[in-house]
Amino acid sequence: MYIPKAFREDDLEKLHKFMQENSFAALVTQRDGVPVATHLPFLLDTERGPLGALMAHMARANDQWRTFTNEQEVLVIFQGPHAYISPSWYEVELSVPTWNYAAVHAYGIPRIIDDRAALYDLLKALIQRHEARFEKPWGFQLPEDYLQKMMQGIAGFEIQITRLEGKFKMSQNRSASEQQRVIAALRESQDISNVQVAELMSEISG
Length: 206
Known about the structure:
Elements: E1 8-9, H1 12-21, E2 24-31, E3 34-41, E4 43-45, E5 53-59, E6 74-85, E7 98-112, H2 116-131, H3 144-152, E8 154-169, H4 176-187, H5 192-205
Antiparallel strand pairs: 1-8, 2-3, 2-6, 4-5, 5-8, 6-7, 7-8
Helix pairs in contact: 4-5
């Protein structure tokens, strides 16, 4: 990922937080030199290895999992809020439009989860995380024969992260006063993504 110095984010805690808050990501691999991508919800274990580990699952009918090897890194793209930035919000008249956005690229070596107990734990952890927001969370209580049948239809996997790239392009290359003008303009928007960019800009600018 092309990352100018002003937009680079290397703080591991911030990168992990971003990945957890934007956990529906794109898994990119190669098959015979051709890119293949699947969009999946990921779990991040921050305690495993220097950079953490990612876990997810896909349908076995989706044979992207067959592209996994011990020699080839895969890429997981985490996308955050983004917004069009109008030059009319700047103080400098000669300016051009741009786009503010945040993204993290995680690279690593994938491994299929063959152990049924480990796969069950992965599914349970995913469900508990996303059900936690509900007043009455679904308890993942299914008949054993049905559960085993469903689990046979998925391929669970984990990725030991080997590299992390963070890009938070939030107008850091503009003056402090222009950043505040952009934040104010975005906050006036009815678009939730624009408002989220404004809040992230505010955090970064301090």
